[in-house]
Amino acid sequence: MKKSENQKxxxxxxxxxxxxxxxxxxxxxxxxxxNSLFVYKTAEEFVDRLKDRNRWDYSRVANPxxxxxxxxxxxxxxxxxxxxxxxxxxxxxxxIMFLTKSGDHVICTDSAYGPTKIFLQDILSAYNVExxxxxGRDVNAIEQxxxxxxxxIYMESPGSMYFYIQDIASIVSLAKSRDITTVFDNxxxxxxxxxxxxxxxxxxxxxxxxYLGGHSDxxxxxxxxxxxxxxxxEAEIAVTMGANADPFAAWLxxxxxxxxxxxxxxxxxxxxxxxxxxxxxxxxxxxxxxWLASHEGHELAKKQMRGASGLLSFVLKDDSKQNTFxxxxxxxxxxxxxxxxGYESLAIPFATSGVINPFASESTxxxxxxxxxxxxxxxxxxxxxxxxxxxxxx
Length: 394
Ligand SMILES: *Cc1c(COP(=O)(O)O)cnc(C)c1O
Fold this sequence. Notes:
Strand content: 15-25%
Order of helices and strands: HHHEHEHEHEHEHEHEHHHEHEHEEH
Number of strands: 11
Radius of gyration: 22 Å
Number of helices: 15
Bound molecules: pyridoxal-5'-phosphate
């Protein structure tokens, strides 16, 4: 593409062309720079190499293939800069370590991704950083948890498992009034359906392993934010901690991003059809999907999101372990495994007592739910598979 064409582009066009003006040997596709270092012809050139951002040095610090992914994702998230990491947890831990020091206090939504909570609770606490986990749906609870030494509010919306929605604008305005930095895990909605920086969020994080990668063949993560903050975070934490992305993962990511918009549209359309089907099924007690009117966060979701992804959960009327496991075991097409956001549909059981339990007041018995990641298969095949599995259920 000619440089003069690099004006305002819509999301789908950015995915195809942004940050790809320079064509190496006229090749339409960007090459993979799978090298650890860059070499220079003279001692003078070597000593001057870092004066120019287009000169490269060492791939733990920066690499041209990784740079394309970073520039593109920063643009999609409407931020200045992005830093790619070797995993979502690499991005999350780097940003949290950048923002906190001994003696600080942080607030985290209790429906956040499990390993994020483990990092705050078990690892950061050993460095004298204290975390309060609060119900992210309750802005008052967040306000009450604020202490004089609170430096960060960590959000994830939709949250994990039940997809609880947080009121981003209200939480950010509260944080800003107290000089607290906000960090947001936007992995579920992706920048296609939600841009937290439009509400003033400071740092946006993604696991690339899920929708951004989309093909279940990459483990990577990314942190986005304002130029000066991401640059400082790189200089003070990321480059030294070394959770840098591998160029090949970035190259696969650059390829995967081309289809992010059309993949998300399909995930979303199919998940909505599946959610509606499950909601009307006589053997299903409850479906959790933010785009269903019955989801408790639906109104808020419509305000701050442009759509919902392919993740949903449901509970059977007979939500015993035996019945729930049997449905999963009888499901054709859906595979059983962690992660989500790939081309393939997945279904896993989870004990509703293990995470925030929406039925806690109703009973003390162990109850089970099913989380599905709706893939890119034909939705009628998915509906037939669910129908057959539910026919055999109690
Ligand atoms: C999987 C996941 C992560 C962690 O990403 P990895 O690439 O596995 O390290 C972070 N946040 C959410 C919401 C996730 O689902």
